[in-house]
Amino acid sequence: TSGRTPLMAGNWKMNLDHLQATHLVQKLDWTLRDGKHDFGAVEVAVLPPFTDIRSVQTLIDGDRLELKHGGQTLSEHDSGAYTGQVSGAFLAKLGCTYVIVGHSECREYLHEGDEAVNAKLKAAYRHSLTPIFCVGEGLEVRQAGEQVEFVLAQVEAGLAGLPAEQAKSIVVAYEPIWAIGTGEVATPEDAQEVCAAIRTKLAELYSGDLADGVRILYGGSVKANNVAAIMAQEDVDGALVGGASLDPVEFASICRYRD
Ligand code: PEP
């Protein structure tokens, strides 16, 4: 992770109502503080459902917590006749730092293609949100050994037309679909292979300096007992954590992987 501040981001998916969210954030913060967590050394973020964000924001602001928060997706539009969608402007007003873009579940269930992902990345930057841009191959692609080409094509399509001033702050999350929610974690070497290839691609698209500064996360069945080996890889700068982020003690242990 040379020089890059690791980020541990909890993607709650469609779990926890706003009351449960408040409990989880309090317990997470308490557990981290109890362990004297250095939030400057390893950044911690929660990504709750939209309906929880106001409550989470109130708690974080009111108690001056060092946790960051964000959304799980956003509309590519800023406002208008888009029933059911949520603008990045609204997320920004709720103090969000991050927003996930292109999660495989949105690509699959909401039929988000690379063009929509690209438009959403641009929308995130219009509202000063930092995107956590997700890419990753399915099982068939992995079995065919084509994971690097597949993921790099997603990276290139997602970033099309994005200027360096924006791309330099992006967070990329490599999430092999076959490892999401399956308990089947990629080996540290599998994660490193693709994360390193993403960094090389960023250097080609922009510059070596930009690529060196971008954080690349791994996601897919990260738990307290496998995170350290993954974080030991040179090009892995954090984790996007689904299931294990719903347990505040487990997630706090993930954030404290250096202990
Ligand atoms: C995710 O959905 O981003 C994820 C990585 O999920 P899990 O940790 O449950 O595999």
From TrEMBL:
<dbReference type="GO" id="GO:0006094">
    <property type="term" value="P:gluconeogenesis"/>
</dbReference>
<keyword id="KW-0312">Gluconeogenesis</keyword>
<dbReference type="InterPro" id="IPR020861">
    <property type="entry name" value="Triosephosphate_isomerase_AS"/>
</dbReference>
<feature type="binding site">
    <location>
        <begin position="242"/>
        <end position="243"/>
    </location>
    <ligand>
        <name>substrate</name>
    </ligand>
</feature>
<feature type="active site" description="Electrophile">
    <location>
        <position position="103"/>
    </location>
</feature>
<keyword id="KW-0324">Glycolysis</keyword>
<dbReference type="GO" id="GO:0046166">
    <property type="term" value="P:glyceraldehyde-3-phosphate biosynthetic process"/>
</dbReference>
<protein>
    <recommendedName>
        <fullName>Triosephosphate isomerase</fullName>
        <ecNumber>5.3.1.1</ecNumber>
    </recommendedName>
</protein>
<dbReference type="GO" id="GO:0006096">
    <property type="term" value="P:glycolytic process"/>
</dbReference>
<dbReference type="GO" id="GO:0005829">
    <property type="term" value="C:cytosol"/>
</dbReference>
<comment type="subunit">
    <text>Homodimer.</text>
</comment>
<comment type="pathway">
    <text>Carbohydrate biosynthesis; gluconeogenesis.</text>
</comment>
<feature type="binding site">
    <location>
        <position position="221"/>
    </location>
    <ligand>
        <name>substrate</name>
    </ligand>
</feature>
<dbReference type="GO" id="GO:0004807">
    <property type="term" value="F:triose-phosphate isomerase activity"/>
</dbReference>
<comment type="function">
    <text>Involved in the gluconeogenesis. Catalyzes stereospecifically the conversion of dihydroxyacetone phosphate (DHAP) to D-glyceraldehyde-3-phosphate (G3P).</text>
</comment>
<dbReference type="Pfam" id="PF00121">
    <property type="entry name" value="TIM"/>
</dbReference>
<comment type="similarity">
    <text>Belongs to the triosephosphate isomerase family.</text>
</comment>
<keyword id="KW-0963">Cytoplasm</keyword>
<dbReference type="InterPro" id="IPR022896">
    <property type="entry name" value="TrioseP_Isoase_bac/euk"/>
</dbReference>
<dbReference type="InterPro" id="IPR013785">
    <property type="entry name" value="Aldolase_TIM"/>
</dbReference>
<feature type="active site" description="Proton acceptor">
    <location>
        <position position="175"/>
    </location>
</feature>
<comment type="pathway">
    <text>Carbohydrate degradation; glycolysis; D-glyceraldehyde 3-phosphate from glycerone phosphate: step 1/1.</text>
</comment>
<feature type="binding site">
    <location>
        <begin position="11"/>
        <end position="13"/>
    </location>
    <ligand>
        <name>substrate</name>
    </ligand>
</feature>
<feature type="binding site">
    <location>
        <position position="181"/>
    </location>
    <ligand>
        <name>substrate</name>
    </ligand>
</feature>
<dbReference type="InterPro" id="IPR035990">
    <property type="entry name" value="TIM_sf"/>
</dbReference>
<dbReference type="InterPro" id="IPR000652">
    <property type="entry name" value="Triosephosphate_isomerase"/>
</dbReference>
<dbReference type="GO" id="GO:0019563">
    <property type="term" value="P:glycerol catabolic process"/>
</dbReference>
<keyword id="KW-0413">Isomerase</keyword>
